[in-house]
Design brief:
The structure holds 2 protein chains of 2 kinds.
Chain A lengths: L1 H28 L4 H6 L5 H11 L5 H13 L13 H36 L4 H15 L2 H15 L11 H31 L2 H8 L4 H30 L2 H6 L5 H10 L3 H29 L7
Helix pairs in contact in A: 1-13, 5-6, 5-8, 5-10, 5-13, 6-8, 7-8, 8-10, 9-10, 10-13, 12-13
Chain B lengths: L5 E14 L2 E14 L3 E5 L6 H8 L7 E10 L2 E2 L5 H7 L4 E4 L13 H13 L3 H14 L5 H4 L9 H13 L5 E5 L7 H18 L2 E6 L2 H7 L2 E6 L2 E7 H6 L4 H8 L39 H5 L5 E2 L5 E2 L27
Parallel strand pairs in B: 3-8, 3-9, 6-7, 7-8
Antiparallel strand pairs in B: 1-2, 1-4, 4-5, 9-10, 10-12, 11-12
Helix pairs in contact in B: 3-4, 3-6, 4-6, 6-7
The chains are: A mainly alpha, B alpha/beta.
Chain lengths: ~300, ~350
């Protein structure tokens, strides 16, 4: 297991190099000269050239890339083009907010999705199954910014239960988590249901029943562990998507997260910040996939990862 | 045979599947007895209802199947009157079952030991340590080498034959009084088949349990069974002790089955297959189910269903030929199968 994890971590290196090349190229493939933007519209050529010199924009691209890489490893992404503060100061506080939001939402969707999926599968074709699947279809089809607005309208404005904006105190957390987690919960519910229905048909479930195992344990012990294998993939993908897709929710609830920072920076052509955000998201995504692979191994010993 | 005590008496068992509002009678009035300490073979082609009969005994029929009638008397108590909780206490404890597919009948995500221990925990309350010791003992009993090592392995690390041995160990965990073996050797190599059958026979003598052996293989029946119930289209057509059945089969279907089987104890010019095919469940003949394929069928057979009747010596036959109503050729009654050595 340990060797497996180490090997997988080493395998991440080429992936991450690929990611850094893409992120680096971002700056050079986008139209417009960052030095010119930085210097201002009517700045004299000398100023622009001075900035180009300072940022190393005149060096050959490979050299620029290696400088970028060396800095990135030390988590030094330079300074923001907007206010000359270190990029890390901009990104890190925002990153923690978004990470928290994504983790809580994922936990919410796993919890809700698994329960709904299991109930649905065990009571296939009953009223509970049909209603759960209809609700799940709604959850999946609803744009989450709209869901967010509706939740604010009802729970914050009409009932006054939760704060409509901000992030930090418990009553600020509830609505964004529901908003962001609902679609994931719906996907997990549908996935769990179909996976459970498939597993419950298997011969070993009949064997368990023939041993005198209680129906509850047949479902939670024998079926669920096998049914979870495909669900774990979906959960992993969901988490990655949430991390990168919080921008709408952050906007609706006025949360200062990384999603908004990223959009603002793109609009302001604040390349160092954009690069840092994209790189962080990519790294997290890759790590989540690693965790998914490890959970596979824990769930099904047959998957030989070495 | 009537003096012997029966551990299980199945009477007029009916199990149907309800598919799109239509009733498909998979088991349609099945009756048989399992004498204590003996082996009953249930033989029949695919779709004859033999597996469904076996699953019905432990009420393991899932949706859309349902037991719609009959009695399953186990040691004098009708299992069909039992609550879900009571039947769970029978399953894997008093009556155990092993299945056709050893490759898929074990849970891939738990170790062999965990799966054997489970039955011991449910029925005997054995803890982890005691359960593991007993599991190792059981693996040894079913002839698995180095059981200490195997007990911590996962099913995918074992071969098909080994997995079937694990299934047997699991089934025997609580010393059942009745073992139902649903085609236990069908999916295995011929050499492994013989080993598994031998194992079941040995264990049966050792523990003194009764066995129901479900198979489509008459060779397996000859090898292991004391009594045989021949099933056709959800009904028992002949019930006899194994010697009588092989020496003097009476139902034309049984005769047909034996004629289509290569044998070493009689001279055979050629194998004679049974003509036609098993009728589909939604298009059952009105009279005797076998009539369309039977060489002796008369109008009586085509229009009226015969009862399963005692014909002496504990033998039961569902055929008009052996009744007073028989309107066909009277010679057929003393029908001697062509393949017996005296005739050649």
């Amino acid at each position: 297991m340990t060797t497996f994890i180490i090997r997988r971590l080493l395998q991440l290196i080429p992936v991450l190099i690929g990611v850094t090349i893409l992120v680096f190229s971002l700056m050079h493939l986008t139209p417009g000269n960052p030095a010119m933007i930085l210097a201002g519209e009517n700045a004299p050529d000398a100023t622009v050239q001075a900035i180009e010199q300072r940022l190393g924009l005149n060096d050959p691209l490979p050299i620029q890339y290696f400088n970028f890489l060396a800095d990135a490893i030390r988590l030094d992404f330079g300074v923001s083009m907007r206010d000359n503060l270190p990029v890390a100061d901009h990104v890190m506080p925002r990153f923690w907010v978004t990470l928290e939001l994504a983790i809580y939402s994922t936990i919410f969707s796993i919890f809700l999705g698994l329960i709904a999926g299991i109930v649905s599968a065990v009571r296939q074709y009953t009223i509970s199954d049909i209603s759960i699947m209809i609700v799940a279809l709604f959850g999946l089809s609803m744009p989450n910014f709209w869901l967010g607005l509706m939740l604010i309208q009802y729970f914050s404005i009409n009932l006054g239960w939760f704060d409509p904006t901000g992030w930090g105190s418990p009553n600020q957390l509830v609505l964004p988590i529901i908003t962001l987690g609902t679609a994931g919960a719906a996907i997990i519910a549908r996935m769990t249901r179909s996976s459970m229905l498939d597993v419950i048909q298997q011969d070993y479930i009949r064997t368990a029943r023939a041993k005198g195992v209680r129906e509850r344990y047949v479902v939670y012990k024998h079926a669920l562990k096998n049914a979870l294998i495909p669900v774990v993939t979906v959960i992993g993908l969901q988490f990655g998507a949430l991390l990168a897709g919080t921008v709408l929710t952050e906007t609706v609830f006025a949360i200062n997260g990384m999603g908004r920072l990223l959009i603002d920076s793109i609009q302001a052509r604040d390349f160092p910040v954009v690069q840092a955000c994209v790189l962080i998201i990519a790294v997290i995504f890759v790590l989540v996939n690693l965790i998914v692979d490890i959970s596979y191994r824990l769930l099904n010993k047959r998957i030989d990862l070495d | 045979m009537k003096q012997e005590e029966n551990i299980l008496e199945v009477k007029d068992l009916r199990t149907s599947f309800f598919i799109e509002g239509e009733e498909v009678k998979a088991v349609d009035g099945v009756t048989f007895d399992v004498p204590k300490g003996q082996t009953l073979g249930i033989v029949g082609e695919s779709g004859s209802g033999k597996s469904i009969s076996a699953l019905s005994i432990l009420q393991l029929i899932g949706h859309p199947g349902k037991i719609v009638g009959g009695e399953i008397n186990f040691k004098g108590e009708n299992l069909l009157d039992f609550s879900e909780k009571q039947i769970r206490q029978i399953r894997g404890n008093k009556i155990s079952m092993i299945f056709q597919e050893p490759m898929t009948s074990l849970n891939p995500t738990y170790t062999v030991g965990q799966q054997i221990r489970e039955a011991l925990k449910i029925h005997q309350g054995l803890g982890k340590q005691k359960g593991t010791d007993k599991a190792i003992e059981l693996l040894e009993l079913v002839g698995i080498p180095s059981p200490q090592k195997r007990v911590t392995q996962y099913p995918f690390e074992l071969s098909g034959g080994m997995r079937q041995r694990v299934m047997i160990a699991m089934a025997l965990a609580c010393n059942p009084e009745l073992l139902i073996a649903d085609e236990p050797t069908t999916a295995l190599d011929v050499t492994i088949q013989a080993q598994i059958l031998e194992l079941i026979k040995e264990l049966q003598q050792e523990i003194g349990m009764s066995v129901i052996m479900i198979t489509h293989d008459l060779g397996v029946v000859a090898e292991t069974c004391d009594y045989v119930a021949v099933m056709y289209c959800g009904k028992v057509v002949e019930y006899a002790d194994v010697r009588t059945l092989f020496k003097n089969p009476r139902h034309p279907y049984t005769v047909g089955l034996l004629n289509s089987l290569p044998r070493s104890d009689v001279d055979q010019e050629e194998l004679i297959p049974i003509k036609g095919t098993v009728p589909p469940p939604h298009d059952m003949p009105e009279g005797c189910r076998f009539a369309p394929r039977c060489p002796f069928a008369t109008d009586l057979c085509h229009n009226h269903l015969p009862e399963l009747k005692d014909v002496g010596d504990g033998e039961q036959i569902r055929c008009w030929i052996y009744t007073d109503e028989w309107d066909g050729d009277p010679e057929v009654k003393v029908y001697e199968p062509e393949r017996t050595s005296e005739n050649k």
